[in-house]
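Objective 1.3, modelling of assemblies. Example input:
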Amino acid sequence: MGDSRLEFLLRPELRAAAGYQSPSAVGMIKLDAMENPYVWDETMKARWFERLQQVDVNRYPDPQALQLKRSLREVMAIGNEHALLLGNGSDEIIQLLCLALARPGAVVMAPEPSFVMYEQLAHMAGLRFVGVPLCEDFALDEAAMLVAIARENPALIFLASPNNPTANVFDRKVIEDIVRATPGLVVIDEAYLPYAEADALDFLRYDNVLIMRTLSKLGLAGLRLGLLIGARQWLCEFDKLRLPYNINALTQVSAQFALEYYSFFAQQVRRIKRDRELLLESLGELPGWQVFPSESNFILARLPGNQAKGVFEALKVMHILIKCLDGTHPLLHDCLRITVGTPEENARLMAALHQILDR
Ligand SMILES: *Cc1c(COP(=O)(O)O)cnc(C)c1O
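Predicted structure (tokens):
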């Protein structure tokens, strides 16, 4: 088939896109994707299987996932004054927001570096994306944000706090100034909330703010469940765009089940946060390495001149997969991103790093 037909028929932004790249990790220690490294114990698995057997997969799932929403409200202490919308991962919610706001000429804005899906999904929806560089220390550049807002009139601003890939939270006062200044909607993405010290739910007092969360980083990445929290007026509109059965029956039942064991996940999170501090310390002792503070389940590190790619590749040969960020944004030169694993995985990572750096 000639390329010309693709060229002629497909949307140009689709032809231009690289698509989401996810490296194969078969047989690797996987420290690249901010997953919770712990599997469920046998008792819990047995109870889960029991619950799954009650699902009638010949029937469509509950289109509103009411039971699951009730559990989410309870666990996250979300009051009935706020509405909820569920997505097949928060990725789907980002896509839905972009589609909903894709009026001709509309702009999506986010600080950068930040979560890559904001830009990818904005482009796919035909929106223009404007990235505003963070400061050198990865704080929001308030002045630059306010200038960009005045210039671009963004329909939608994404603020991930804690931010991926920089691991830090943004200053609440600066977030507030952005919320007050923008004519559009601000979505605060709290994907890493389990690993942070405070939430931003109180920002819902502003009627142009929505809060987005996910169960992925807590430990349920495979189930694909994200949620949007905010005013009914907004969410009712977005709900028209949502595919009716986007949360499948197995996910509804499994997430519901998992939330009954919330304390089990909370315990894993406490463990991962403690191990994060230990790993921060160990990485910080490597010669010339600069590690940045983290309120997430991953660590951003800057290596001495031009070592990042080599270290990344050498780790891969030793079956340890992390993320190399060098070359993805000027502020991330010489940077690696490392997800906190189990104590054993972290120890193997450190041993491998010592071996590589001692060569
Ligand atoms: C991982 C991540 C998400 C996506 O989460 P899913 O619910 O798994 O789609 C959203 N935002 C940020 C900042 C993330 O790092």
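The radius of gyration is 21 Å.
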